[in-house]
């Protein structure tokens, strides 16, 4: 009787030890994004995050959570404090996380069916501006400070070509004749309208957006310069994340588009087509962009 009691106690002990060990190792996957409209962004990310968590049960992931930061630098702080596990954004916007918070590139996201993108600097068709050099002493409109295609990419491209840019606060304000003055319009539609009405000399936005707004050259705009290409979006993970979990996240993302349900979830996720490996051309280019991005962050 005594022996049976000891066996029973041992079995109960083993059961509860196993139960609480499993509980201790169960995790919540936290996915981060940057947006000025957190409620809408959470709604966009939620089905995607739930699907991802459901397919990571073997890695002891029980649930997921979406965390929205107001800026890339805030996201870097969340990464540093281990409050976000993976972050999805433009690679230029993700700079702070990669460079300052130990983030690492994982995969590329085909957002809205697009694997990569670039930006276009444009002028009115009747403009005397024929080359980038002609922008010296003139005013260029960007979208907003954290916009990848409407600011960071075209500005980095100009900086790579050794042009000196200076921010102004009013349209009628100008820098020196050797500098390109720029001002933020806060919206692509504003940028297009300002150029159209001659309020500024040139504008910049994603090439896809420019082509959409200037369809069949109906608005009498002319592309002056097209930037280099970068991945549309990237997935970045915390460097101290469990390597086995990282491998499983990679596998689930790569297999996402292989099932009907996965395709449905991706379509809801801003018409994402799939996830794949980041092209080597970008990873080779990244070190050359770092000094320019660092200089840009210092001036903000």
Which architecture of the largest domain does the CATH hierarchy give at level 2?
3-Layer(aba) Sandwich
**Gross morphology:** elongated
Arrangement of strands in the largest sheet: 2-1-3-13-4-14
The low-confidence parts are 2-25
CATH superfamily of the largest domain: Periplasmic binding protein-like II
Q: What is the H-and-E element order?
A: HEHEHEHEEEEHEEHEHEEEHHEH
Radius of gyration: 24 Å
Main sheet attributes: strand count, strand direction, barrel closure: 6 strands, mixed
**Averaged pLDDT:** 88
Helix content: 40-55%
Structural class: alpha/beta
Q: Work out the number of β strands.
A: 14
Tell me what portion of residues adopts beta-strand conformation.
Answer: 15-25%
| Discrete helix count | 10
What is the third-level CATH name, the topology of the largest domain? D-Maltodextrin-Binding Protein, domain 2
Distance between the termini: 76 Å
Instruction: Tell me the count of domains.
Output: 2
SSE inventory with pairings:
Blueprint: H1 2-25, E1 27-34, H2 38-54, E2 61-69, H3 72-80, E3 86-89, H4 95-100, E4 103-109, E5 116-117, E6 119-124, E7 139-142, H5 148-160, E8 165-167, E9 180-184, H6 188-196, E10 202-206, H7 207-213, E11 221-226, E12 230-231, E13 233-238, H8 243-255, H9 260-268, E14 275-276, H10 280-299
Parallel strand pairs: 1-2, 1-3, 7-9, 7-10, 8-9
Antiparallel strand pairs: 3-13, 4-13, 4-14, 5-12, 6-10, 6-11
Helix pairs in contact: 2-9, 5-10
